[in-house]
Every structure is written in structure tokens, then in C-alpha cells.
Specification:
It is built from eight helices and 20 strands. It is α+β, with helices and mostly antiparallel strands. The strands form six sheets. Strands 6-7-12-10-11 form a five-stranded antiparallel beta sheet. The protein starts with a strand and ends with a strand.
């Protein structure tokens, strides 16, 4: 295990922000994590665990230790008549886990295809897309407490999952290193094609027996068509959460904006696409200096190459302010700002 000093994080965040950290280390297993955190020089230093860096906006150099897990084991750990339990180490690329499950016809995360990042970050964010969320298939996770280096285990209820939220973004923020995630997948997949765009694309296949691989392939196609490749254009995916409001609030807004889309998430709550709100405020495709809003997806803030964190923050605040003035809705950021 090599520990780097004054290390550039430009290649470790998909926004491509050129900042440095005081110390940087890549770890392969729990023993290396424990060994690293036991070093006296790191005792009072801030620690940051990064995966693919796909949900981070660095605003300055990080005066502490950055830990990147590069473990990559995926195993089918157990199964019963209906479910298979798949264990993946935190350093596994998320999409590789999706492919592992799809190739074994294990259903539950095919709609989450091509989400960037690593497995260890998935529970923190409770990642979701196209009608599926991690919490729906999550069984448990293993980790290490940063302060006392004790092994910890979390069940689904322990994680306090919410919409793009968990206990690891609140009470336990920066206190736990997730090392392994166990999912419970369906051996007899039940397809989730409730999102119109998926249904539309599936209908073009003209097949009677749609498989989870068909769904995964279509999700990949949709994402590639409408989301920018971070290798070519710096971004962190969806910058904002979709606001959830009461049915009463939704109906009031709908009376003013008849075309307002909404997805019913419960008997009392409607989710509104933040991208639609941002687009209606005139930001879609707009460039301001070195940053802007993607031309195909208004949820995505992009860095055209030389953007500074201050430019991204300024644009973020401008969007929040304008959406609030127009719709009386407060957008919440999804990206972790450091």
C-alpha cells in the first residue's frame, strides 16, 4: 500500500476539478484500511472516502487523508427458492455488479444500469433510477468505524434509507467506511417498466418475452443518449434531487402550469422532475463562462474544461433562486459538496 502526499484529485472526480489532498491511499481490503487508519499521523486528520468521484464537487484542496477502495470481488453468497444473495466489495464498479446480476438473470437492479461510481457509495446515496432504488434490494452491509476501527454491520432498517439519502449522509457522515454490500435479488425477475421512455423503447423490440437484459440494455442506451460522458465533458450526473410535494401543492401548481409532469410516489406525495423546472426557467443548454447546463438534460451541470468550483456553485445558486421564484419550490442538491 502506497501513501501519496500532495496528490492531485483531478482524475478522481468526474467534474474534473483540479484540487489536491494532503494524503492519498488506495486500499485493497479491510486489513489495509485498519493499518492505514492506525498510523499516528492520520489520527487528527480529516478523512474522505471516495469511489468513482461521480457525486462530488470539490471546492478547495482537502487537508486530510483521501481513501480509495480498489477491492473488486463479487460473489453469489447464498440463495433460497426465490432469492439470491450477492455480495460485492466496496471497490467494485457499480455497473459491473449490475452486469454480474443481469448475466445470472437476477432481477432488481437492471434499471440502475450504467449509474457511475462504486458499490461502496451506493447505500450512502440510496441510488435510484427509472423506478428502482437500492433500498428495494438491499439486504445488509459491512464496514469499519473510522474512530475505533471496529467492524460494524447494518441492516436495511439501520441505514434509514430515504430519497437519495441514508444515515451515512447524516448521523454517520464520514464515520463509517463501507467495505461490502449484500443485495437480495429476485431469481424470478419482475420487470419494472413503469417509466414511459423504457416502455416505449421496449415496445420497439416487438418481443413477447422481455428479459432483464433487454431492460438493462435499453437503460444504458437511454443514459448514453441523454447524459454526457464524464470522460468527454465534466459532470456529476444529476446535480439536484426531484422535489417531492403534497398532492394539494401539486394541484395548485398544475392549475398554473397545465403541462407540469408528476409521478405519484404515495397516496399523498407527488415527485416533480427537477429537470423540467430548470428547463422552464430557461437554463437548459445555457453556458455561463466555463460551465453550464447540458443541452439534453437540464439536471446536469457541466464543466467545459476549465471551470472553477466557484463558477459551478454560482450557477447552482442561480438555478435554485430562479426555480424558487417561479415555482415556490426549493431545489435540494444531490451532489456532495466538499
Amino acid at each position: 500500500m502506497q501513501i501519496h502526499q500532495n496528490y492531485s484529485l483531478k482524475k478522481h472526480n468526474t467534474f474534473g476539478i483540479d484540487v489536491c489532498c494532503k494524503y492519498y491511499a488506495e486500499v485493497k481490503n479491510e486489513n489495509e484500511i485498519t493499518q492505514l487508519l492506525s498510523e499516528a499521523r492520520f489520527k487528527n486528520k480529516s478523512k474522505l472516502i471516495i469511489g468513482g468521484g461521480s457525486n462530488i464537487l470539490f471546492t478547495k484542496d482537502f487537508d486530510g487523508l483521501v481513501i480509495n477502495q480498489i477491492s473488486n470481488r463479487i460473489i453469489l453468497s447464498s440463495e433460497d427458492e426465490k432469492y439470491a444473495f450477492v455480495s460485492a466489495e466496496a471497490g467494485v464498479i457499480w455497473h459491473e455488479l449490475v452486469l454480474f446480476c443481469v448475466n445470472k438473470n437476477l432481477g432488481g437492479i437492471e434499471n440502475l444500469s450504467l449509474i457511475p461510481g462504486k458499490v461502496g457509495a451506493a447505500p450512502i446515496q440510496n441510488i435510484g433510477a427509472y423506478g428502482q432504488e437500492l433500498k428495494n434490494v438491499f439486504h445488509s452491509l459491512k464496514g469499519i468505524h473510522i474512530d475505533d476501527l471496529k467492524a460494524v454491520n447494518f441492516s436495511s432498517s439501520d441505514c434509514k434509507f430515504g430519497y437519495r439519502d441514508s444515515i451515512f449522509k447524516k448521523e454517520l457522515k464520514s464515520k463509517i467506511i463501507i467495505t461490502e454490500v449484500i443485495l437480495r435479488l429476485n431469481k424470478y425477475p419482475e420487470l419494472n417498466t413503469s417509466y414511459g421512455i423504457i416502455e416505449d423503447e421496449l415496445s420497439k423490440l416487438k418481443k413477447d418475452n422481455i428479459t432483464i437484459k433487454n431492460v438493462s440494455d435499453i437503460v444504458c442506451q437511454i443514459r448514453r443518449n441523454k447524459l454526457p460522458d464524464p470522460q468527454k465533458l465534466g459532470n456529476a450526473g444529476s446535480f439536484f434531487k426531484n422535489p417531492e410535494i403534497s398532492i394539494e401543492e401539486y394541484n395548485l401548481l398544475k392549475s398554473k402550469y397545465s403541462e407540469l409532469p408528476g409521478l405519484k410516489v404515495s397516496d399523498t406525495v407527488i415527485k416533480i422532475p427537477a429537470g423540467w423546472l430548470i428547463e422552464k426557467c430557461g437554463f437548459k443548454g445555457k453556458r455561463i463562462g466555463n460551465v453550464g447546463i447540458h443541452e439534453k438534460q437540464a439536471l446536469v451541470i457541466v464543466n467545459y474544461g476549465n471551470g472553477k468550483p466557484e463558477e459551478i456553485l454560482k450557477l447552482k445558486n442561480k438555478i435554485i433562486k430562479k426555480v424558487n421564484l417561479k415555482f415556490n419550490l426549493e431545489l435540494q442538491q444531490e451532489v456532495n459538496i466538499i
